[in-house]
Each structure stands twice: as C-alpha cells, then as structure tokens.
Write a structure and sequence with these properties.
The structure holds two protein chains of two kinds. By secondary structure, chain A is an alpha/beta fold. In chain A, the strands form three sheets. In chain A, strands 6-7-8-3-9-10 form a six-stranded mixed β-sheet, with helices on both faces. By secondary structure, chain B is mostly helical. Chain B is built from eleven helices and no strands. In chain B, α4 crosses α10. The longest helix of chain B is centred in the N-terminal third of the chain and has 31 residues. Classes of the chains: A alpha/beta, B mainly alpha. Chains A and B meet through α2 and α4 of A and α8 and α9 of B.
Chain lengths: 333, 233
C-alpha cells in the first residue's frame, strides 16, 4: 500500500502537514452488550486543531479515540483521515502514520531513549544514523538533554518519561496524534508544566490531535474544540471552550463544566480582547491588557470598583474595562 | 545389561598406601586427571545437546501457547507427567527400543526433563511483559510478529534464561545416569570404581564444577544481553 502524502515527506526537522479527521456516524457495539460503547459519533477535527474528547469514565471517549487507528474495530459508520476511510487501510501501516501516546506511556524498558523514540521510524525503514539524529532533535524539542538518548526508561523521572512518550509519538512526523490522558499519571504541578510545554510544542508542530481526558479543566485548557460525551457513547456537545462555557447544550454539560463556568469562561479571554470603553481619567485601578478577564475581575472586586484602566505592555492606557463589559462577554455577545 | 557394564569396568590399580586405605588421594587425582577429560567432554556434550534441543522445543511450544492460551494447561500437564517418569525407567525403555544403546538414547530423557522448566518460564516471561508496552507497540504499528520479537521476547529474556539455568544445572546432574543408556559421561567414571573415594570425588567434583561453570556462563550471557536491567534507577 502506498504511503499517502500526508506523512513522512519532509526531512527530519520539518513538521509540515496535519490531517483532517472526520468521524462519520462511527459506532462501536460489543457483542452481548445492551448498548453501544460509541453511538453514532459524528464530528470533524480541522487540520492542526486539538480536539479533546471529554466525559465521565465509561462514556466511550477512549474507545472513540482507539477506533481512529483501528486498535478497536468500527462496528458501523466510518472514520476518515484526509477523506480516506481508515477501514480500508492495513491496521499496522495506518498506525505508523498516527502518533500514539497513552497515559501509562508504555516506553519499552529494554530500549534506550533513542531507540524508543526511533520505534516508528525504524518500522518505516529509517536507518540508524537518521534515527540518532532525529532522537537528538526531538529531545531538544521536548526540552530534554540530548545526553538522555543513551539512558534506559528505568533511569528517568516520570516527567522525563512522559516527554519522551510525546517525542516518540511525533518521531515519524505523523499528521495526526492520538493522546489518551497523556498527563494523567503526573502530579498536578508537573502536569500544568507539561500541558504548557505541550501547547508551546503544538504551536510549533501544528498537528491534528485527538486528546482524551476526564478532566474538564484540562479539556478547556488544551482544546481548540471540545467534544463532551456521556454514558452510552453519545456526543452531547462539540464546541469551542468558550462556547461550551457560555452556552452548555444541556443540564449534563452544564453540570459537567461545573458551577464556576462563568469564571472559567473569563479565564479564557485576555482583557485586551474584551469590549473596552475609551480611556477615561480618575481610575483607581489599572489592569494589563494581557491579564485574563478573571484576574481583572478579581482585582476590581478587591479594589471595590466597577471599572479599571487597561494598560498595554508599554504602560500606555489603551481603554477602560467595566463590569458591564465583562457581563457582555459572559452573555456571549 | 549388567554383563555389558562389567565389561567396561576398569579397576584402578591401588598401589600406594593412601589408595589402599581408600582415602582421598590428591596425588592419585593429579596422576589420573587426564583419564577424566574425555568423560567430562562427553558430559558437556550430553548437557549442551539436551538443553539446546530442549530449549528449541520448549521455546517453540511456549510461543505457540502464548498465542493460543488454551494450550498452556495441556502442555504444562504433559511435560509435567514426562518430568515425573523415573529417569532409570525411561533409559530402560529406550534401550529396548530400536535406538538401543548410545548417545541418542542417553540424551532423549535429558531433553524431556528440560521441557517443563523451560516451557513454564517462557510462558511466564511472555505473560509478564507490561500491558502498556504491548499496547504502545501495537498502537505504533508493530505487527504481531514484530511485537513478539522486538518487545515481548526481549522483555521475557531474564525469565527465559532463568529457566534455562535451572534446566542446565538439573541436566548436568541427571546426565550422570546417562551411562545406563550407553551414553558415557562422568557417571560412567563414577560407576567404574564406585567404592573408591578419590574417583568419586574427582568425577563428582567435575560434574559439580561443570554445572557451576555453565550456570555462570548463562548468568553472564543474561547480563550481557539485558543491559537495561543493570541500570535501573
């Protein structure tokens, strides 16, 4: 089978392409089960976007993700990668074109870091020199010392292993990346750091990513779009984080995003993007235009004022933020 | 059989006082050491052939049972029953078969006795491979064959080699009986003058040393081919 032009056409440092992914009525039904694990899932992930599948355990989010690279077979419907059905592909070849990172990471204990990273390139026939060079680049890309290349997984910290799991997943420059709770086993402080690092990395490599988590805050932080699923494999809402928080589709989503969804919504938006009034004199409080609205609101409440001057990076006052403007953002206008 | 055995017996000449007292005689051992080299070599041959063939069979069965889990119980059962057959009885049966006396007859029971130990360790080693490593391997596009040879077998090696070590040491001990089947070995030397202490110490000691040396060799091999285990943090 031919390697489609979505993968592997660039040199080791190029991250050119991302694929469009479309679930088209994708359904998984296990024999003997009274309801589907994934029921008629239809959604499209645009190239270069992070789609987060989120929901309580048993909602089918991991099953949905694993159907993409055919780790789980599709019962009905289809999944299209750049318009081509994954069902028509040889599973092993398909998987080599799709990055794969799981919560337990699954580094091979008997292989060095470099050989772990080189797993898929080796399957694709890359030679040793290429793999060594690529491993060095990727270690740098995920913020690790190139010296780690010769170590074994047992000699690494949890955070290092996780980064190498990501490096391994992108080693062959796949146009699509599947990530199943990749930061799930990491303590909260390091998780936050890894999330930020990963977002920076994604800004650079621009892959299409399907990201599974049960944590709505992680979903809001990582997702360009979020697919909220519930028991029975139903997709309840597929929307941007802001839309999800501003206008939950039903009581389930509203409950799932939490009672503080207003504040979560404000945390997504910098002051500079809010509808500002012109600069006015006599403001007792100044907030920065790159503060998020939640921070600005908190400062205003603490200062006992319903308006604040907004300053940019050069300390020039560019406008006035009012409580009314914040309310406007929350109402979604 | 008895007559034939007696025909091979060579009574050592006991001239010095130590020997006539049937003590432990270092000088006698030094003088007669060279007579034991050829039986030692034969003993090594019996052991190596038995373990190599036994490993090939048990490893093959182990891979088969790894894919088809339902085979584990019957194979464990059959190799277990084989393991319980008294070795002397097995030699006796084989001697009366068309194989008659000789190396092959001596080595077959030894092969049979290695199967159970090696098979069990192969199966346990393969089953002990972390599920997440297996999932990652499949998820990255390894075929079943690549998963087996690049991930499962390497990770099962410590357990597999542990089985081979036990099988090897056991075989060295059992091979001292192979002379009943006319296969020679150090057992032959022991039998030659079973009442003479120096002979027993020398022949028995060589068997012990052989077992020890082979075990060390396998341990060294394991260390060499599993470098990741030495570096654990």
């Amino acid at each position: 089978m031919n390697t489609p032009n979505t993968a592997q056409t660039e040199g080791p440092s190029g991250f050119p392409q991302a694929a469009t992914l479309e679930f088209r009525g994708a359904t998984k039904r296990y024999p003997g089960a009274d309801r589907a694990a994934v029921d008629q899932l239809s959604l499209t992930v645009a190239a270069g976007e992070i789609c987060v599948l989120v929901g309580p355990s048993g909602c089918g989010k991991t099953t949905a993700m694993r159907m993409v690279n055919r780790m789980i077979d599709i019962t009905e419907g289809d999944i299209l990668l750049d318009g081509h059905s994954v069902k028509e592909r040889d599973p092993a070849e398909l998987r080599r074109e799709i990055g794969y990172a799981i919560q337990q990471i699954g580094l091979f204990p008997h292989l060095s870091v470099a050989d772990n990273i080189g797993t898929v390139p080796k399957l694709l026939g890359r030679d040793k020199a290429w793999i060594r060079r690529r491993a060095g680049e990727l270690l740098e890309l995920v913020g690790l010392d190139a010296e780690l290349a010769g170590r074994y997984p047992a000699q690494l910290s949890g955070g290092q292993r996780q980064r190498i799991g990501v490096a391994r997943a992108i080693a062959a420059n796949p146009p699509l990346l599947l990530m199943d709770e990749p930061f799930g086993a990491i303590d909260p402080i390091n998780r936050e750091r890894l999330q930020n690092e990963f977002l920076r990395l994604q800004a650079e490599i621009r892959k299409t990513i399907v990201f599974v988590t049960h944590d709505i805050d992680e979903a809001i932080k990582m997702g360009d779009r979020i697919a909220v699923m519930r028991e029975g494999g139903h997709l309840v809402q597929y929307a941007t984080p802001a839309e999800l928080l501003t206008a939950p589709a039903d009581a389930f989503v509203e409950d799932f995003v939490g009672p503080d969804r207003g504040l979560k919504r404000l945390a997504l938006q910098p002051v500079g993007d809010a509808p500002l009034a012109p600069p006015s004199d006599g403001q007792v409080l100044t907030v920065r235009d790159d503060d998020v609205l939640r921070t600005a609101l908190s400062k205003m409440l603490l200062a006992g004022t319903d308006s604040a001057a907004v300053a940019d990076g050069d300390d020039t006052v560019v406008g006035t933020l009012t409580i009314a403007a914040i309310e406007q953002v929350l109402r979604g206008s | 059989m008895n007559a034939l055995m007696l025909g091979q017996v060579v009574i050592h000449h006991r001239t010095s006082t130590c020997e006539s007292r049937n003590g432990f005689c270092p000088s006698w051992i030094v003088d007669h050491f060279s007579e034991y080299l050829s039986p030692l070599l034969r003993h090594l041959e019996l052991t190596v052939v038995a373990v190599v063939v036994g490993f090939a069979v048990a490893f093959g069965l182990g891979l088969l049972a790894h894919r088809r889990r339902w085979l584990i119980a019957p194979i464990t059962g059959i190799t277990g029953v084989l393991f319980t057959i008294p070795s002397l009885a097995l030699f006796a049966v084989l001697i009366t078969s068309p194989l008659g006396f000789g190396f092959v007859t001596g080595v077959i029971p030894l092969i049979i006795y290695t199967l159970q130990i090696i098979f069990r360790n192969v199966v346990a080693g393969l089953a002990g491979v972390p599920e997440e490593a297996r999932d990652a391997a499949r998820g990255m596009g390894m075929t079943a064959r690549q998963l087996l040879w690049r991930v499962e077998v390497p990770l099962a090696l410590p357990e597999i080699i542990a089985g081979v070590r036990i099988a090897t040491v056991t075989t060295v001990a059992l091979a001292t009986l192979a002379f009943y089947a006319g296969a020679g070995g150090l057992g032959q030397q022991i039998e030659t003058d079973i009442a003479f202490k120096s002979n027993i110490v020398l022949a028995g000691g060589l068997a012990v040393l052989l077992a020890f040396a082979l075990d060390l060799l396998l341990l060294g091999t394991e260390r060499a081919i599993t470098p990741w285990r030495r570096s654990g943090a």
